[in-house]
Amino acid sequence: MSQVYNWQLGREMSYPYDARYPGRQFAFVFNINRCIACQSCTMACKSTWTFNKGQENMWWANVETKPYGGYPKFWDVKILDLLNRANPERQRWTGGVSDDPKAMYGQFSGMTIFEAIKKSIDVQSSRVLGYLPPDDEWTSPNIFEDNPRGKTGVRNKLHETGEQLPVHNTWFFYLARICNHCTYPACLAACPRKAIYKRPEDGIVLLDESQCRGYRKCVEACPYKKTMYRPNTRISEKCIGCFPRVEGTDPETNGVPMETRCMAACIGQIRMQGLVKVAPDGSWAEDRQHPLYYLVHVAKVALPLYPQFGTSPNGYYIPPRWVPREYLRQMFGPGVDRAIERYENPDRELLAVLQLFRRSNRIIFRYEIKEGPLVYEAAYRGRNIKIYNDTVIAFGKDGKELFRTTVQEPLHVRPNKHQNSI
Q: What is the per-residue pLDDT for 47?
């Protein structure tokens, strides 16, 4: 085992291979507050990549209802239980959140899936703590859809009173997921054939099917269960990050880096995908005007999914405002309270950057803001709210403007010549 630095954990950790980092890393932010579980992303991926024989139960992109849903069933509950059994009651965070980019969420003092394997078995036959889901757990990409969380310890009964923010007693939310293209992939660490690798140009994690022998060690190891086994070919497959679009070689892109199919299909405008600069130690290099860097490291409203697993996922989420904080902390780490506070009370820049989501299918590399007039002012929950109609401008890889949009959305009135006009 080598020692690598994981900035999401705020410390060094054990990993089977020496650290190697791409020049830029494929990354994304999902705003859960906006997700309506329309499954447009799911079907965009399915119709592009997993529509063939043997792929019927493969869903590289899916949206699951939390707290009860999951694909495969209960994937996160099971891996969390394995970690707790390997390190009972010690899976904790210490130090508190900070502005230190090398330890933004404090320090995780528990064990990762790479460290817990040493205590989970007597014979060292695996490199990563994990489990292999049985076939029946792969049958439904969103079982328990829209099942709300009611009273603790009371089955089939919800709270009888109305609810209001900041936290609802009866709640659920939608969690959109794809492969996180982790900095320290568990699938890569576990593969005995070395068939899995990270592309040096963008950090997308790929599986060389010519080298795969279907041992399913990658399926067992991935804590997010985003590597899947195809029974008719007897090899594993996974999300490829739509790399022809990302690198600009897809004919549709005209040579310009383009977002993945699941990102471009999102009608709820919850997604933004990009390529972030990586520092020599694996953390994100400072890039102040990059929208993903801003959301993760400046505004700090976007958080990694289960950072305690230790894979350093490159998928980030703006957590839902109405969900009990304790549940969100175990899913997104200690930064939850700060993230929700800043999202509920956005400053001028954050409000502008949030308008970039899904305004184009081209990858944004930089943004600028042109200040506009004050268009709204009011008191809300003891705070004085001011909204300015600023213009936010997005730029591509070549430095050319991709588009510009305003904070205040335009109002279009249908002319009365149309039959259904009011």
A: 97
Asked if 58 and 169 count as a contact pair (C-beta separation under 8 A), the reply is no
- What's the whole-number mean pLDDT along residues 252-268? 95
Name residue, tokens 């709300």.
148
Record the tokens describing residue 203, joined without a space. 């950090």
Structural tokens at position 88: 């009972």
Summarised one tens digit per residue, pLDDT across range 279-320 is 999 999 999 999 999 999 999 999 999 999 999 999 999 999
Please give the model's pTM, rounded to 2 decimal places.
0.95
Domain chopping of the chain, boundaries: 21-349
What is d(CA 32, CA 29) in angstroms, rounded to the nearest whole number? 9
Quick one: CATH architecture of 21-349?
2-Layer Sandwich (3.30)
| Helical (H) or strand (E) element with 340 | helix 336-344
Distance CA 216, CA 142 (A): 23
Q: What percentage of the chain's residues is helix, strand, coil (to nearest 5)?
A: 25, 20, 55
From its phi and psi, is residue 270 left (phi > 0), alpha (psi between -120 and 50) or beta? alpha
